[in-house]
Amino acid sequence: MTGARKGGGLLVAGTTSDAGKSVVTAGICRWLVRQGVKVAPFKGQNMSLNSFVTREGAEIGRAQAMQAQAAKAEPSALMNPVLLKPGSDRSSQVVLMGKPVGELSARGYHGGRQAALLDTVVGCLEELRGSHDAVICEGAGSPAEINLRRTDIVNMGIARAARLPVLVVGDIDRGGVFASFFGTTALLAPEDQELLAGYLVNKFRGDVTLLEPGLDMLESLTGRPTYGVLPYQHGLGIDEEDGLRVSLRGTVRESVVAPPVGEDVLRVAVCAVPLMSNFTDVDALAAEPGVVVRFVDRAEELVDADLVVVPGTRGTVKALEWLRERGLADALARRVAEGRPVLGICGGFQVLGERIEDEVESRAGVVDGLGLLPVRVRFAREKTLARPVGRALGEPVEGYEIHHGVADVLGGEAFLDGCRVGAVWGTHWHGSLESDGFRRAFLREVAAASGRRFVPAPDTSFAALREEQLDRLGDLIERHADTDALWRLIEGGAPAGLPFVPPGAP
């Protein structure tokens, strides 16, 4: 593979959302880069509240930033030219080439704007293909969303425009994977079916020999092979596009804890605010031995927490209302009065302040904050996108900023361009807890304020854990997929003469 020609490509589609497209794309990228292939990830259009800032100051989906790390490539706006950040059930902020260009309803986007973006998406893909041996593209949702096919720029639309072979991933753990594979194929137009090369089964439990007769029958029905069966493995969560998950060592509700170094564990409660964004900030806490991270939505769940995190949100005023309605605002105020630790990040930092003036995001005007930090926030139309570097608690810290709110800090102790008052910290910096020395120093402060005999592990490296995780994804592909056949797809495209599968057959 080291002599690969430039411009190979593959689109990883899925029978459903959360079928495993992001994981498979990352795994293929890691497998390829191990073989000496210069590879890049790509997703033409992403909908996610978890985003990242590249070195050139562009905002892209965190999943694509993680896939770039899997490929050992520098994240770029070219890898995710269109990012949609939901602000409600019906509208999203449109981020084009890393910069916000406005808010659009779903009807307005799919009614015309989306199709106009196809040239931009294709241009970015071709630029990446011109500088890399291979580009592994991730689709979105299902390629068989027939109501949206006319304006599609992320599944079969980009596949047909760029002549990409398509591999469809199915989550067998959900059940119905054979029907999903067949139905997805049969719903596609003949021109799209020409590019659908085959299937990949994900999250299989049990004896694969029991599955093989079904795979043979599927191939006889569709004329398309299965390129691998990936086993179900725990702890493979990566930076999520959606959902509620602690990625490195966690499940939906509560992280899995390695034994503590000291005598006590440390319990972290994360307020699951509406439109929560970049909840991956707490992954680094969940990676620490002896730290339990759980997402909560009731006031009583804060009682035994040693640290409460109010995370980022795309709806700061809505999150503020939600905290008050659920009694969490009063519970936070009681914690602060007792000197118990609270950390607000980005939107969570903003709600802890005295006042919010918002004519941009919610257009609610002036709203009282929780008054737990001496901060006043004004929402600016221009979004701050930055990669700050600094020091806190005597340790170097790196992070990234994604926010419209401009904070006027009126007092307290300086803390990562935010402030600290007693055991309450607030900052706009996402990702700061990934800085190992700072994270350990912060947890020592939390333990002291909580009266816990907790000792941070001296050798936990978040970056090393992430690399181990990405290597595990590469191992999955290398050990359980037909990598020779995958490479032929990437380099040569979909095989000629793939049969058309009509709806309803057999």
Instruction: Report strand %.
Output: 25-35%
Q: Judging from the principal axes of the Cα atoms, what is the shape?
A: globular
**Number of DSSP-assigned strands:** 27
Examine the coordinates and then state which fold CATH places here, giving the name of the CATH topology of the largest domain: Rossmann fold
- How is the biggest beta sheet arranged? 7 strands, mixed
CATH uppermost class of the largest domain: Alpha Beta
CATH architecture of the largest domain: 3-Layer(aba) Sandwich
Tally of discrete structural domains: 2
Question: Would you tell me the overall average pLDDT?
Answer: 92
Distance between the termini: 40 Å
Contiguous helical run count: 15
Radius of gyration of CA atoms, rounded to a whole number: 23 Å
Biggest sheet strand line-up: 15-13-16-18-27-26-25
Structural class: alpha/beta
Q: What are the segments in which pLDDT stays under 50 over at least 5 consecutive residues?
A: 243-256
Share of helix among residues? 25-40%
Structure description:
This protein folds into two domains: 8-237 and 467-492, 3-Layer(aba) Sandwich (Rossmann fold); 266-457, Rossmann fold, CATH 3.40.50.880. Helix 1 packs parallel to helix 2 (62-70), helix 4 crosses helix 5 (156-162) and helix 6 packs parallel to helix 8 (212-222). The longest helix is centred in the C-terminal third of the chain and has 19 residues, at 462-480. The protein is built from 15 helices and 27 strands. The strands form seven sheets. The protein has a seven-stranded mixed beta sheet. Strands 2-9-1-10-11-12 form a six-stranded parallel beta sheet, with helices on both faces. Residues 243-256 have low confidence and may be disordered. It starts with 7 loop residues before the first strand and ends in a 14-residue tail after the last helix. By secondary structure, it is α/β, with parallel strands linked by helices.
